[in-house]
Backbone:
């Protein structure tokens, strides 16, 4: 078996060792593994897609999610893992996989072996072009395995509907009774949230002796936590939104209200109430960078500015950089709890495992704790589509803004 990267424009590709996986975009399969003659291919080949092999078919499916970078990345990851496992571990194309093969793959996800072939060595994330890149960082948790199979089931169902495959090998999976939707557990209690805020307010950058870099880093941490909590934004929404997305309009009573226009999952746009507190924090953050307190309409500066390098101000942070900032903050907060004594160890572990999405859940939970109407929480978070008539319902928008303003606050101790 020979797995080859896509050839460069100036010459043919060189073979890679067959034991090592290759990222999907560089993968070229020999005819026997291409799926052109897969045993599960639809017999009449009258496909609704112009795909003659598995890689082309998978590419067509992934193209449907091109408008959502986060979804595309997650779906590509799961498809990539399955194709590489199928050709390297089984010596079979994707379009020849059986139900029994998928059961074996489910077990493989819980323990990808041999680890040298499948699992990244060390904790540092590598570029997909790096020779030591691997498709796994370690074994998947049960919840992640279920999510992977859900994604793969969607792939197989679509390929079957497109008449590329004769059937969906995952359709025979044992049906489980749909459980009652559990309460959100990955969020911070009010007590733990106070610990996180106190941690930020005590960062070295807040001291009079702080360096410029420390000062700007502390300001960025505070602003990031503020916009994630008060706006209920996803990480991808923070990195993909500019300061020019803030705008002001008068309500039906002539009161000026600020809003933040966000494009979220599925390329859907929603308006997030920018409360007085959020606007004050925005001004505070901009002043730290020597900017005017209020952004200009259409301003292209990202919500999160680089700590150094004035020339890079138009370049936003990546999601991985955002997560590293949060990991630092939560790590410091967890350390402050552990310093209180062993009885705080369990709570410290909760903080240490928190992420950006925890803050979204935290914001939603705290809003409902404070009796914010669930319809307003839904619309703030973009959990449902916004009706095409909502542009005329300014009074409802104003009520949502007022409820958010009055009852959902972050309450930083230091105001300057």
Residues:
């Amino acid at each position: 078996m020979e797995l080859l990267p896509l050839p460069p424009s100036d010459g043919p590709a060189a073979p890679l060792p067959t034991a090592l996986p290759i990222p999907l975009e560089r993968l070229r399969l020999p005819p026997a593994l291409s799926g052109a003659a897969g045993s599960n291919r639809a017999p009449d080949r009258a496909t609704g897609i112009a795909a003659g092999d598995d890689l082309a078919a998978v590419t067509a499916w992934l193209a449907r999610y091109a408008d959502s970078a986060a979804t595309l990345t997650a779906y590509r990851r799961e498809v990539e893992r399955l194709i590489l496992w199928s050709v390297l571990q089984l010596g079979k194309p994707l379009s020849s996989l059986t139900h029994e093969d998928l059961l074996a793959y489910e077990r493989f996800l819980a323990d990808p072996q041999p680890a040298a072939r499948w699992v990244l060595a060390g904790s540092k994330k590598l570029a997909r072009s790096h020779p030591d890149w691997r498709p796994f960082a370690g074994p998947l948790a049960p919840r992640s395995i279920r999510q992977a199979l859900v994604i793969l089931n969607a792939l197989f169902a679509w390929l079957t509907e497109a008449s590329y495959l004769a059937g969906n090998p995952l359709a025979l999976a044992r049906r489980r009774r749909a459980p009652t939707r559990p309460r959100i557990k990955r969020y911070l209690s009010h007590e733990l949230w106070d610990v996180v805020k106190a941690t930020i307010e005590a960062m070295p950058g807040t001291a009079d002796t702080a360096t410029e870099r420390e000062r700007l880093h502390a300001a960025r941490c505070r602003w990031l936590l503020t916009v994630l909590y008060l706006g209920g934004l996803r990480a991808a929404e923070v990195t993909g939104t500019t300061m020019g997305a803030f705008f002001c309009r008068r309500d039906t009573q002539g009161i000026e209200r600020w809003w933040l226009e966000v494009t979220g999952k599925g390329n859907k746009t929603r308006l997030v109430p920018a409360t007085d507190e959020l606007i004050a924090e925005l001004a505070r953050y901009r002043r730290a960078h020597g900017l005017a307190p209020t952004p200009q309409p259409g301003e292209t500066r990202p919500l999160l500015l680089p700590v150094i390098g004035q020339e890079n101000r138009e370049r936003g942070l990546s999601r991985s950089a955002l997560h590293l900032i949060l990991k630092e903050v939560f790590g410091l907060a967890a350390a402050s709890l552990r310093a209180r004594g062993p009885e705080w160890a369990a709570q410290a572990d909760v903080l240490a495992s928190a992420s950006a999405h925890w803050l979204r859940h935290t914001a939603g939970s705290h809003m409902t704790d404070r009796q914010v109407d669930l319809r307003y929480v839904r619309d703030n978070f973009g959990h449902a589509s916004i009706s095409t008539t909502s542009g005329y319902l300014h009074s409802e928008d104003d009520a949502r803004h007022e409820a958010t303003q009055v009852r959902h606050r972050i309450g930083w101790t230091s105001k300057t």
Observations:
- Residues 1-17, 177-182, 385-395 have pLDDT under 50 and may be disordered.
